[in-house]
């Protein structure tokens, strides 16, 4: 099914090409006199209204570009936003934050409503440096270049030029020879783009290190902890790394032996580590995928299906692979419209099915929050919370995978595969977090050292039970396949933390399905001015990644997998 890329799915209520007009509207906010708490609240609302208009237009332009990186006009519009509007916003954001923070009424704002916003603004005032604006613009330009390279990446397959996601989907094939062929084709593609990837990452690391130095930090890692207003420390992250290595990796090794036995292979090679035991891809075209996911959502809760069907009807979902489309998948908010948009670039595979369900967890969270709390603001978007509902949605739909896998054995295999994914989400993103800790605390590292460190960390975690002999260099360079390292640095560990919460959602669902869904919806619509722990509590789970918590959920996950056999 070909989707209409011209369908209007966002509201363009401000002309971002009129730079003087945009600047005049922002400047008018600075000119307002604030003489009471009431005045300040009215000013904050006016600021929000303007920034939401700008955010929706910029988000729409970005999604347009990701959907078609080869269209010159779309790219021009997107680059204008990044090179002209974004620097303008950075400049005025600092002035707006300073105006608010210096107001004598700032600390008199209601804590329950404005507390989180106050903390975010105070940290932004502390971090802002005028000299970092051009560095951040250059950072965005490099990320755009990465999207272009990956969006245009194709691979020769049986004498045909295929999009990169198609080759990724072949890692699901039952035939081991096909899986190996796909894996080696992907590695060949990596080698072709590696010089570009190394150059981009080398420059990003240096830019980000300088941004941190300018803001008074020793390294970019420490800077990002303040930027993200994390409610945990660097040491907490290192402890989490160790807890998972101690309690999850041994369980992962035991599970890998089970998969190795089911595959009937003597050695567990990288292309076996991706294998699915279901006979066929879960769907043949995008319409089949959307019909089935709608049914699965509806069986879980009518509201979930209602939101999905609404998004489908209004052109708010773009699935399937095509040349020129940026890689990966995401869900993003359109704050003026009150909508969410789901983007994915995948060929038919088990992973693409789960990815859509995952992104719908984000979408449902977005719609519930909007209906209860109003438009999402930047300081609401704490990924430890957002990923709880995406992973949680995956596990709430675990018992409905028979919609795509009606045969009993395939259904069991699909459930085991989703639970294996849960295992991998406990250590995969976490190892990526450790990789970034190393990169940014060792900013003078070489490309060769980066590859070697990535391989070393991979072997400690996900590839621990895998025979990687002869593939060390290929695995070492495969970090370039992860867009998070380029475009959203230090957005990794949140996946692993939230998976611990999502497993608790599954535990609750197995005990009382109706109550688990009620709690899921309550947490997804909660007041995000609370702490992360408080929002988790409203969802019926704990925000806990201590050693006892990691050990308990690892044991629970292993037991659930055993129960399916």
UniProtKB/TrEMBL annotation:
> How many cofactors are bound and how?
Binds 1 zinc ion.
Protein's name according to its UniProt entry: M3 family oligoendopeptidase
UniProt-listed Gene3D superfamilies: 1.10.1370.30
A Gene Ontology annotation in the biological process aspect, one of them, is: peptide metabolic process
Q: Name one GO molecular function term.
A: metalloendopeptidase activity
Q: Which cofactor does it need?
A: Zn(2+)
Q: Which UniProt keywords apply?
A: Hydrolase, Metal-binding, Metalloprotease, Protease, Zinc
Q: Note the PANTHER family from the entry.
A: PROTEASE M3 THIMET OLIGOPEPTIDASE-RELATED, PUTATIVE-RELATED
């Amino acid at each position: 099914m070909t989707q209409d890329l011209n369908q209007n799915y966002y509201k363009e209520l401000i002309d971002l090409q009129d730079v003087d007009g945009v600047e005049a509207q922002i400047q008018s906010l600075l000119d307002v006199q604030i003489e009471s708490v009431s005045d300040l609240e009215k000013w904050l609302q006016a600021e929000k209204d303007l920034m939401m208009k700008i955010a929706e237009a910029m988000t729409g332009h970005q999604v347009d570009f990701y959907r078609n990186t080869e269209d010159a006009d779309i790219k021009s519009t997107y680059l204008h936003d990044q090179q002209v509007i974004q620097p303008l916003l950075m400049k005025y954001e600092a002035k707006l934050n300073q105006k608010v923070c210096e107001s004598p009424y700032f600390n008199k704002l209601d804590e329950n409503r404005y507390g989180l916003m106050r903390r975010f603004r105070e940290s932004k005032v502390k971090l802002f440096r005028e000299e970092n604006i051009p560095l951040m613009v250059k950072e965005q330009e490099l990320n755009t270049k990465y999207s272009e390279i990956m969006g245009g990446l194709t691979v020769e397959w049986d004498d045909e030029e295929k999009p990169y996601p198609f080759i990724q989907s072949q890692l699901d094939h039952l035939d081991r020879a096909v899986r190996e062929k796909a894996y080696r084709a992907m590695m060949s593609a990596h080698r072709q783009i590696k010089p570009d990837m190394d150059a981009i990452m080398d420059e990003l690391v240096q830019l980000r290190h300088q941004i941190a130095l300018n803001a008074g930090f020793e390294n970019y890692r420490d800077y990002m902890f303040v930027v993200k207003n994390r409610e945990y420390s660097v040491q907490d992250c290192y402890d989490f790394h160790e807890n998972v290595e101690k309690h999850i990796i041994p369980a992962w090794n035991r599970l890998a032996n089970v998969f190795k036995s089911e595959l009937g292979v003597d050695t567990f090679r990288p292309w076996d580590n991706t294998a699915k035991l279901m006979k066929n891809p879960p769907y043949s075209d995008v319409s089949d995928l959307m019909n089935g996911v709608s049914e699965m959502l509806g069986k879980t809760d009518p509201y979930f299906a209602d939101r999905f069907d609404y998004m489908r009807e209004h052109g708010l979902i773009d699935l399937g692979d095509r040349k020129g489309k940026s890689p990966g998948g995401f869900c993003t908010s359109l704050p003026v419209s009150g909508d969410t948009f789901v983007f994915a670039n995948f060929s038919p595979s088990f992973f693409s099915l789960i990815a859509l369900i995952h992104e719908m967890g984000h979408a449902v969270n977005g719609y519930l929050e909007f209906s209860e709390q109003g438009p999402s603001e930047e300081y609401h978007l704490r990924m430890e919370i957002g990923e709880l509902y995406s992973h949680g949605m995956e596990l709430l739909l675990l018992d409905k995978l028979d919609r795509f896998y009606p045969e009993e054995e395939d259904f069991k295999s699909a459930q085991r595969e989703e639970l294996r994914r849960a295992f991998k989400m406990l250590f995969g993103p976490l190892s990526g977090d450790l990789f970034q800790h190393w990169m940014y605390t060792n900013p003078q590292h070489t490309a060769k050292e980066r590859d070697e460190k990535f391989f070393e960390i991979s072997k400690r975690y996900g590839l621990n039970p895998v025979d990687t002999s002869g593939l060390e260099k290929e695995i070492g360079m495969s970090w370039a396949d992860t867009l998070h390292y380029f475009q959203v640095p230090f957005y990794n560990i949140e996946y692993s933390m939230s998976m611990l919460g999502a497993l608790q959602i599954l535990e609750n669902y197995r005990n009382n399905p109706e109550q688990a869904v009620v709690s899921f919806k309550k947490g997804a619509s909660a007041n995000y001015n609370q702490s992360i722990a408080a929002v988790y509590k409203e969802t019926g789970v704990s925000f806990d990644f201590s050693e006892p918590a990691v050990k308990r959920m690892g044991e629970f996950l292993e037991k659930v997998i055993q129960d399916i056999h």
